[in-house]
């Protein structure tokens, strides 16, 4: 599938994977609608590739927030805020766009979940829960709308070189505010964007975008869960 002339809405487009996808799609001739919570950063991306368009061909959900806190230290307001942004916001926007896709019998929904939606690791309990929820909801929706000509692609990134960690919630609702080496040495954003778009173009139902280490972890979770659980608990901070 070519993206030339396609009308694509990207949420979370002001930074990270969303911004990377916007730049790649603009270079391939797509017509873009970009939205984000940080208006000042969004304008930087907008200046490069935003154009006016009509009905949506592809909706890409990239908006999200992470977490860096033990479950026992996380207040319920943080749990709810993460679910509102990562899960409920995604579902509600899908609900708003879906009727027009159903009416035209075409469209594609692309949901950026995470490897954390498959594997739970320390300090990310609510974040991981929200990403697991996305997998469950959109797996169901994929089956429901298949006969209507609508496809659903779920993207599960591993470590990508973004600032998601520094913007993550701490247990009391503050921001983590630190750059993480494991992310800084992760896959470059533009490489990640290109991998995602190849999967979208092929209408793949799911793609894990990561280096070999995270893909191995997904394999272990499926076939050797006890081994993975032992490995994960060695990373609990003291």
UniProtKB/TrEMBL annotation:
Protein name: Ketoreductase domain-containing protein
SMART domains per record: PKS_KR
UniProt lineage: Bacteria, Pseudomonadati, Pseudomonadota, Betaproteobacteria, Neisseriales
Family in the record: Belongs to the short-chain dehydrogenases/reductases (SDR) family.
InterPro entries per the UniProt record, alphabetical: KR_dom, NAD(P)-bd_dom_sf, Sc_DH/Rdtase_CS, SDR_fam
CDD domains per record: 11beta-HSD1_like_SDR_c (cd05332)
GO cellular component assignments: membrane
Domain Ketoreductase: 6-163
């Amino acid at each position: 599938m070519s993206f030339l002339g396609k009308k694509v809405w990207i949420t979370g487009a002001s930074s990270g994977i969303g911004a990377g996808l916007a730049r790649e799609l603009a270079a391939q001739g797509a017509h873009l609608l970009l939205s984000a919570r940080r208006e000042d950063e969004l304008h930087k991306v907008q200046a490069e590739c935003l154009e006016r368009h009509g009905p949506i061909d592809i909706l890409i959900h990239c908006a999200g927030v992470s977490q860096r806190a033990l479950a026992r230290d996380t207040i319920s307001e943080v749990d709810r805020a993460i679910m509102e942004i990562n899960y409920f916001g995604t579902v509600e926007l899908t609900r708003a766009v879906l009727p027009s896709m159903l009416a035209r019998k075409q469209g594609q929904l692309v949901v950026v979940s995470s490897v954390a939606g498959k594997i739970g690791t320390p300090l990310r309990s609510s974040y991981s829960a929200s990403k697991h929820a996305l997998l469950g909801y959109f797996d169901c929706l994929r089956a429901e709308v298949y006969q209507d000509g609508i496809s659903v692609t779920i993207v599960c990134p591993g470590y990508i070189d973004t600032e998601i960690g520094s913007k993550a919630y701490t247990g009391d609702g503050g921001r983590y505010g630190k750059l993480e080496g494991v992310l800084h040495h992760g896959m470059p954003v533009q490489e990640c964007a290109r991998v995602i778009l190849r999967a979208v173009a092929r209408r793949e139902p799911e793609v894990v975008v990561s280096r070999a280490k995270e893909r191995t972890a997904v394999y272990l979770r499926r076939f050797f869960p006890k081994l993975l659980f032992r490995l994960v608990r060695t990373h609990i901070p003291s």
